[in-house]
Amino acid sequence: MPGHARKGAEWTCLMLTVVLGGCAQPPRGSTGGRIDMGKTTDAERASPRILPGALIEFSDQVAQELAQDLAEVRTIRDAPSRCTIIVGDINNKTQIVSSDEFEMTRSRIRNNLLQSQYVTDRLKFVENRARIDQLRQREMVLPQEGPVGPDAYDPQTTYALNGDFYRVHRGNVNQYYMEFQLVHFASNEIVFSERYEVKQRS
Questions:
Q1: Counting runs of H as helices and runs of E as strands, what totals does the chain give?
Q2: Do 176 and 198 meet the contact criterion of CB atoms below 8 Å apart?
Q3: pTM of the entire predicted model
Q4: How many CA atoms lie less than 13 Å away from 74 in the CB half-sphere?
Q5: Given this structure, which CATH class describes domain 49-201?
C-alpha cells in the first residue's frame, strides 16, 4: 500500500475510534446513564420510602427460604400432584410506598422460585384469571368467555402467596416490616412465613 494511502487509512481508523469512543460516553455535564443495581443513589437515600436494594434483598431472602422449607411443608411434600400457588393479596399499610413496589417484590420472588427445578417439581404458579381473560378476549383466543383452566382449584392442593407491609415513622426515621406468607386454602393455615425488617433515616 502506498505511504499516503496507508496514512489515510490510519487517519480514518483514528477518527472512527474517537467518534465511536465519544458516542459511548455520556455528554459532558450529563447526569444520565446506567447505575449499578447495588448502589444507593443520593435521591434514594434522601427519600423516606424503603430503599430498592432492601426490596431486592428481601425478595431473594423469601425465595431462598421458601425453596429450602418446601421439604418441611408436609401438605406440599405429601400432595399427590403439584400444588397450585395463586398470587394473593398485598396488604400495604405503609401509607407512603406504592403497592406497585411490593408487587414487583412478589414478582421477583416468583421468578426466583421458578428458576429452581426442585420448586417447579412441587409447585405451579398460576396467573390471575381476570388478567388472562382480558388478554384472551383482546386476542380472540377461543373460547372468549368462561373460566381459564379448571372451573375450580382443589383447596387441598392450593395456596395463596400474600404479603403484609407496615411502617413505623418517627421524625426522619422509618422502620419497615415486610412479610410474605404461604396460606393453605383448605385449612387457612400459614404453612410458610418469612419476615424482613429494615430501619432507615432520610
A1: 7, 5
A2: yes
A3: 0.73
A4: 1
A5: alpha beta
